[in-house]
Amino acid sequence: MFDWLQHFADWLIYSVFGIGADTHLGTALNFFVFDTLKILILLFFIVFIMGIVNAYFPIERLKDYLNKKKLYGLEYFFASIFGAITPFCSCSSVPLFIGFVQGGIPLGVTFAFLITSPLVNEVAVAMFLGMFGAKATLIYALSGILLGSLGGWLLGKLKLEHLLSDWVKEILENKMQQAEFQGEKRTFRDRLPEITRGAWDIVKGVLLYVIIGIAIGAAMHGYVPENFFNQYLGGGQWWTVPLSVLVAVPMYANAAGIVPIIQVFVAKGVPLGTAIAFMMATVGLSIPEATLLKKVMSLKLIAIFFGVVTLCIILSGYLFNLIL
Amino acid sequence: MSKTIKILGTGCPKCQSLTGVVTDVVSENNIDATIEKVEDIMEIMKYNVMTTPALVIDDVITIKGRVPSKEEVLDLLS
Q: Which end of chain A is more exposed for a tag (fewer CB within 10 A), N or C?
C-alpha cells in the first residue's frame, strides 16, 4: 500500500541527495522521510473517519444509550468502546465526568469511559498502525478497551462515591432533570468541510511531535546496535514491566511523539508487551490529568484510580509478553 | 439589542481558538455584543454541556465540542 512512498523516499535520499543506502545517515534519513509521510497520511484518514463517526454518534447520544438500555454488566464494555471512539481532549475529561455521573451513570462505568478515552485515541491508533502494522494495532486497541472495562468494573466494586468532591456530591443528590439530546440537524454535506478541517487541525497540531519523535527514532535506528536492549531488557526479567510502567505514569507524552521511539525499542529487542505497557502508562495516566481531576475528586480517589489503572496496565504487559 | 456571548471552556487550545473566531467575527462585522469567557468548571456545568468549548448566545447553547467557522458564527449572531 505504501510502496510508492518507499520508492519516493529511496529516490529522494539516494538519488537526489546522493547519500548512499549503505551509510548510517542514508538509512536513517530514508526511514525518517518514509515514516513521517506515511504516518501523516494515515493520521489524516483516521482522524477524518473518526470525525464522521462522531458526527453521527455524539457523546450525548452515547450517554443516553448507556443510561436507558439494560446492559447486564456489558455497560462497562460499552462505555469503554465509547471512550475509544470519542476524540480525546484532556480538558473535556472533567465536564464529561460530571455529565456522566449527573446523568445517573454509575461511577464505575464512568471510569471505564475515562480510562479508555485517552488510552485508545485516533492519534495513538494512527501511529501504531504506521509503525507496528495492523495486527499490533488491533491488539493495542482491544486490550485498551478490555483494560478500561476491567478497571472501571473494579473501581465500581470499590464503592468510591463518598470520595468525590463535595460539589459533585451535591449535583448527584439533587439530580437535575437533564434535557434530552437534540441532534443537530445538518446534512452530511454541511458537515464535511468542517470534519476535513478538524482532521487537518489535528494533523497540524501533532505534526511537530511526529517529526521530533520520528527524528529521534530514525537517529536511534541507525546508530543503536541490533539487539542492544536484549542484553538488558529482553531476557524477560520480571521487573522490566512494572519498572517501565512506573517510570511512564507521571510522564506525559503525546502518542505522536512516543510511538516512533517505542518502535525502535521494540526493533532493538524490547519485548512488545513491555513496550505497549509503557506506552499505555504514558498516554493513559499523567500528572496534568490528575491536576484536572482534582476538581472533581479527592486526592485519595485519584490515587485509587491511578493505582488500579497502573495495576491493570502492568498485568496486561505481562499478559502480552506471554502471548505475543 | 446587544447580545451576550459566553464562551465555555477550561482554557484548552480549542477554547482559545473559539474565542479567537468569535472575537474576530464580532469586530469585523461591528456586532453589538459582549463576550464573556467562562472558565470555572462549576459555572460551565450549569449549562449541562459535556464537551468543551461551547458557545452560548443569549443563554442558548448553540455550539458544543467543536470550533465553528467564521461564517457559521456570523449566521448564529445575525
A: N
Contact A91 B10 (CB under 8 A): yes
Q: Which three cell numbers stand for residue B39?
A: 472558565
In angstroms, the CA A175 to CA A196 distance is 38
pLDDT of B7 > 70? The answer is yes
Q: Enumerate the residues of chain A whose CB falls inside 8 A of the CB of residue B45.
A: 95, 98-99, 102, 171
- Summarised one tens digit per residue, pLDDT across range A246-278 is 888 877 777 788 888 888 888 888 888 888 888
Amino acid symbol at A227: N
Which residues fall within 8 angstroms of residue A82, CB to CB, at 6 or more apart?
A59, A62, A66, A113
**CA-to-CA dists, residue B61 to A175, A210, B56, angstroms:** 21, 36, 4
B58 catalytically annotated:
no
| Residue of A157 and A182 predicted with greater confidence | A157
Residue B12 annotated in active site: yes
How many Å apart are CA A134 and CA A131, to the nearest integer? Answer: 9
Give the residue carrying C-alpha cell 535506528: A221
pLDDT tens-digit readout, B23-65: 988 888 888 888 888 888 777 877 877 777 888 888 888 888 7
- Averaged over A8-12, what is the pLDDT? 85
Quick check: A69 and A109 in contact, CB under 8 A?
Answer: no
Angle at A177 between CA A162 and CA A68, to 5 degrees: 80
Contact A86, A125 (CB under 8 A): no
DSSP of A248-304: HTT----HHHHHHHHHHHHHTT--HHHHHHHHHHHHH--HHHHHHHTTTB-HHHHHH
Comparing CB atoms, the residue among A59, A178, A194 nearest residue B51 is A59
CA distance B20 to chain A (A): 15
Q: Would you say how long chain A is, in residues?
A: 324
Q: Residue B57: in which H helix or E strand, if any? A: strand B54-57
Q: Can you give the pTM of this predicted structure?
A: 0.82
